[in-house]
Amino acid sequence: MIRAFAAALIAWAVPAWAQPAPKLPCAAGDRPCFIKALRAHPVRGAAYWKASLSRPVAERLGPAPPELVEFLHLDNAANGFPEKPRASRLSADFLADVRGAIADLPPAVRRAFDATFAGVWFVDDLGGTGFTDMYLDGSGRPAGGFVVLDAAVLGRFKANGWATWKENTPFKPGGGWTLEARIEKAAGDDRRGAIRYILLHELGHVLSINRDVHPRWDLDPGDVPASARYPFFELSWTVDRKASRYDSKFDASFPARRSVTYYLGAKLGAADMAPAYEALARTNFPTLYAATSPGDDFAESFVSYVHTVLMRRPWEIVLRKDGKVAMTYRTCWEEPRCADKRRLLEGLLR
Ligand SMILES: [Zn+2]
Question: Ligand 1 mean position to 292 CA, how many Å?
Answer without folding.
Answer: 10
